[in-house]
Predict the 3D structure of the following.
Amino acid sequence: MTVKRNTIQRQLVLDAVCELASHPTAEQVYEYVVDKHPSISKATVYRNLSMLSEYGELLNIGSFHGSIHYDHNCSYHCHFICENCKQVFDISTQLPNVFDDLREMHGFEIKGHSLSFNGLCPNCST
Amino acid sequence: MTVKRNTIQRQLVLDAVCELASHPTAEQVYEYVVDKHPSISKATVYRNLSMLSEYGELLNIGSFHGSIHYDHNCSYHCHFICENCKQVFDISTQLPNVFDDLREMHGFEIKGHSLSFNGLCPNCST
DNA sequence: CTCCTTAATAGTAATTGTTCCTAATAAATA
DNA sequence: TATTTATTAGGAACAATTACTATTAAGGAG
């Protein structure tokens, strides 16, 4: 059995996503981390972002405008992506349990889902 | 005022997405169209896919596994993406009108949304 | 129908996001 | 403290997409 090791690089990547709290991309995480740990490489950031997502410590919320965004909040919520400023907003709303119904009705083994809206945020719509 | 011109290339791209009906990527559309019109270039396929999406004649349903998928069905439905076979399935289900509520409650001008599930399809889960 | 404007095209180069590769490093266990 | 091997840095490779430029052709005006 392979052991998951704790490295400062992995911790820095995880901390960055939490501290940025802006649904950052790998590039944005790299920019944030390289300040504190200049020798880190981009490959390390990419690798840790996907490993942390697999472990359930981060959430890959999908690819918007060409790059994958990550979220430190792994509990269920939706997102709103502004087409103008490209910002990703959290939308905390409860959708009824159609998800459970879907699971049972269609025979799909659902491991995750992504609900996102696009349009213009209050700032950009004026 | 710029005039949108009708070209055979644009029509072929639109037809391809309809005829394939498998949520194709730009690459898959190109492979399909180049048979009928060998001189078409990939840039033309990419350009027309994004223009047709802007015009509302196609739907960009998001980027899965590294490339954007398009749908000829522009009416509301969800998708299920199998993590194993990478197939995109249509899920026709009605979510209650939380979308209208969101629109009014948050001040976001919602132009579209995307709800997709990932996991294993019935074929792959056994 | 013919001419003219310019949107759209073909072909290719460039860019961007991401993954792969390899030798060196450093966690974790014995 | 020594050993194993997961992880790293750095750069090359790759794949999806966009940008660029000369050429072509759609469609409105005359």
Observations:
- The domain at 8-71 of chain A is CATH 1.10.10.10 (Arc Repressor Mutant, subunit A).
- Residues 3, 5-7, 25-27, 42-43, 46-47, 63, 66-68 of chain A lie near DNA strand C (CB under 10 Å from a C1').
- Chain A touches chain B at residues 62-63, 80, 83, 89, 91, 93, 95-96, 98-99, 101-102, 106-122, 125 (CB under 8 Å).
- The mean pLDDT of chain A is 85.
